[in-house]
Amino acid sequence: MGNVYVLLQLLGVIFIIGGFYSGQIIIGIVVGLICFIWGGIGYRKVQKEKKLEKNLIPCPYCKEMIQKDAIKCKHCGSDIEPAS
Ligand SMILES: [Zn+2]
Question: What spacing in Å lies between the alpha carbon of 7 and ligand 1's midpoint?
Fold first, then answer.
């Protein structure tokens, strides 16, 4: 999914360059910046979600996904010994 936001940022740059070439500089910059910022925010969000997913492990008792360093399962309430 992260690639969509990279493309959006690229589209923003194209809009800005296209704006300069076609004489529609202000429209190009406004639309281009919106695409660029939107893409940047989205990309960061995806990276953050990926990082969170990496910290999840299945609970040894109920197999629901929980935080790696959790000491108690939020799903079944079992005490869990830290992996490390
Ligand atoms: Zn559990």
Answer: 40
Structural tokens at position 57: 């492990």
Query: What is the 23 CA–ligand 1 centroid distance (Å)?
Result: 61
Question: How far apart are the C-alpha atoms of 58 and 64, rounded to whole Å?
Answer: 5
Taking the whole predicted model, whether its pTM rises above 0.70 is answered as no
What lies within 8 Å, CB to CB, of 70 at 6+ separation is: 80
In tens, the pLDDT along 55-68 reads 899 999 999 999 98
Q: How far is the CA of 8 from the centre of ligand 1 (A)?
A: 40
29 close to 16: Cβ distance less than 8 angstroms: yes
